[in-house]
Design goal:
Layout lengths: L11 H4 L14 E5 L2 H12 L4 H15 L9 E8 L2 E7 L36 H12 L4 H14 L1 E2 L2 H8 L11 H5 L7 E2 L2 H13 L2 H5 L1 H11 L9 H6 L3 E3 L2 E5 L2 E5 L6 H14 L1 H4 L7 H21 L10 H4 L2 H9 L22 E7 L4 E7 L57 E5 L2 E6 L7 H13 L5 H6 L3 E2 L7 E4 L7 H9 L3 E4 L7 E6 L2 E6 L6 E5 L1
Parallel strand pairs: 14-15
Antiparallel strand pairs: 1-9, 1-18, 2-3, 2-10, 3-6, 4-5, 7-8, 8-11, 9-10, 11-12, 12-16, 13-14, 16-17
Helix pairs in contact: 2-3, 2-5, 3-4, 3-5, 5-8, 12-14, 12-16, 12-17
The structure holds glycine.
Length: 557
């Protein structure tokens, strides 16, 4: 894990909007679980105006681009899983490599990766997909006008929002942004805890997009400003007007798996998340006899889950990449017989020796929100700039940050990256290719009705976190908010025999000793997840925000 990691503060107490207790009254308008209160307020405004889950998701995504700038975005990309009118959809608005990108672009003359080149500055940015993705979702499903869905975001940008302490801490955690390669401080250096922060350039950009539609971003004045940013300063970015014009959103078949009477509707490649989540859930079920009588989060529980995670990460590094460029054996990877065989290889007594493969390159900062409406529709959205505040490059005059998603590619396939892990050839850089992701926006349905909407940031921790919460709720029968508050841990094949813990719930000495006896070392991963989920019990939505973050769960009446 990089040193620049996110520390979280519990902002909920300050704003008085903690995950609200759910009343038994019938659902009036919907519910939202958002990583901050402004995203929740945007969804609530749109749901009350008669919008559906898709409208609310569009409104929240634009609002978070203003008030959650470390991950909410116009200049990044993401995935949305939807369940609309009884049918499942998956929208891939992931960034793409510019046409001029090459497998050598982050390597020096000797072929070694150049520190930070894929992380900070214009060269780190992929072609953004968010605005086009949200526009296509709105055009297909929205009930309200595009401008109506964007109105809350424009309001927060123009009139400002109160800066939470967690946001200022996030900025402090990213000294790379002030290195001079990026112009981040010019826009975000003035944010102060508790003060109102206004973003007039961003407000104007949002107003233009509201008026002119997504073409404004890809070929209008906003595109011109982005092009000017690519050539401004020392480092030149690769994104061209042709890249912007060529950007395509892809509507993919969601990955749907049967699990314990539920349909798990989740992310297909270019995310590794859905395949990994399905493997985790299925192998844990296959290994049920080993888990019998094993207490949640006990040392033996952690060992067994690590054994499963190890196998998932081995597959991930070897097989997964953009399916439009490499053949991903998705069906084989979630084949029940294959997973039963893999689960059968779990050693209940000690860690299996790791294979010589490791996970791809990822940064933890991303964000997720979940929405349901009164018609039974749901939207589960995870989007990202990749690193906290992305490449740190603000498009001057337009006020939005560019992603550093290029770092999600294997900068040099087969070579260890700065965190000591290697990526596979399937995820090598190629023009117009999408980098491998772990984002796992997921919806569970039972008998055709939405039962759970869930997701989180966390890079390679994303699907192991979603998996743990689903296991807590469905295997251990914990209420959703209790499950979110439980400690989470992570293992990813390499570093060998290492179990990671979050700062939110460090491992006790007793636990560390017990894991050491089983052959593991423990490490603080320096980063907390941020699950935003809604469970639906009959007609009643139970939203819950992760106590690790500044999120809000809200039933909208
Ligand atoms: N950038 C994080 C992910 O896509 O998984």
């Amino acid at each position: 894990m990089p040193p620049s990691i996110r520390r979280t503060f519990c902002f909920l107490a300050l704003i008085g909007l903690a995950a609200m207790p759910v009343q038994a009254a019938p659902l009036a308008a919907g519910a939202v679980a958002s990583p901050d209160r402004y995203g929740a307020l945007a969804a609530a405004e749109v749901l009350r105006a008669g919008g559906n889950a898709a409208d609310a998701a569009v409104a929240t995504a634009f609002a978070l681009a203003v008030t959650y700038p470390e991950a909410g975005n116009l200049g990044g990309g993401g995935f949305m899983t939807l369940y609309m009118n009884g049918k499942a959809y998956f929208v891939d608005y992931r960034e793409t490599a510019p046409a001029a990108a090459s497998a050598q672009m982050y390597l020096d003359a000797k072929g070694a990766p150049i520190t930070d080149l894929s992380l900070t500055g214009p060269l780190a940015a992929g072609v953004p997909g968010t605005v086009k993705g949200l526009a296509e979702i709105h055009a297909r499903f929205g009930k309200l006008s595009w401008a109506r869905d964007m109105a809350p975001a424009i309001h927060f940008a123009r009139d400002g929002f109160v800066v939470p302490p967690a946001l200022v801490q996030e900025r402090a955690d990213e000294p790379r942004l002030s290195s001079g390669v990026a112009n981040f401080d010019r826009y975000f250096g003035v944010m102060r805890t508790g003060a109102v922060f206004r973003q007039p350039d961003l407000a104007a950009t949002l107003r233009r997009i509201a008026k002119n539609g997504p073409a404004e971003f890809y070929s209008g004045k906003t595109a011109d400003l982005l092009m000017a940013q690519m050539t401004r300063g020392g480092a030149r970015g690769l994104i061209t007007t042709a890249d912007l014009a060529a950007y395509k959103v892809v509507w993919r078949e969601p990955l749907i798996a049967d699990w314990r009477g539920y349909q798990v509707i989740t992310a297909p490649p270019p995310s590794s998340g859905g395949i990994a989540l399905t493997q985790l859930l299925t192998m844990k079920q296959d290994a049920a006899p080993l888990f019998k009588g094993v207490a949640l989060n006990s040392p033996q529980y952690m060992h067994l889950v690590s054994e499963i995670e190890k196998r998932v990460f081995a597959d991930r590094a070897e097989y997964l990449g953009d399916p439009d460029f490499v053949k991903v054996p998705a069906v084989a990877l979630i084949d029940p017989a294959y997973l039963a065989r893999r689960a059968g290889q779990i050693d209940p007594a000690k860690p299996s020796p790791p294979a010589a493969v490791a996970p791809g390159l990822e940064k933890p900062q991303t964000t997720h929100f979940s929405v349901v409406d009164k018609w039974g529709n749901a939207a589960s959205n995870t989007y990202t700039l990749n690193g906290s505040f992305g490449a740190g490059v603000v498009v001057e005059g337009a006020g939005f940050l560019l992603n550093d998603e290029m770092d999600d590619f294997s900068v040099k396939p087969g070579a260890p990256n700065q965190f000591g892990v290697v990526g596979g050839a399937a995820n090598a850089i190629a023009p117009n290719k999408r980098p491998l992701s772990s984002m796992s926006p997921t919806i569970l349905t039972k008998d055709g009705a939405v039962a759970m909407v869930i997701g989180t940031p966390g890079g390679s921790r994303i699907f192991t976190s979603v998996f743990q919460v689903l296991a807590d709720v469905y295997d251990f029968h914990l209420p959703l908010s209790t499950a979110l508050a439980k400690p989470r841990f992570h293992h990813q094949l390499l570093p060998e025999n290492t179990i990671f813990f979050e700062p939110y719930a460090p491992a006790s000495k007793v636990l560390v000793d017990a894991l050491r006896v089983r052959g593991y070392r423990t490490e603080d991963q320096g980063y907390n997840g941020d699950i935003e989920a809604i469970e639906i019990d009959g007609q009643t939505p139970v939203p819950a925000a992760d106590p690790r973050g500044r999120g809000v769960g809200m039933v909208v009446r």
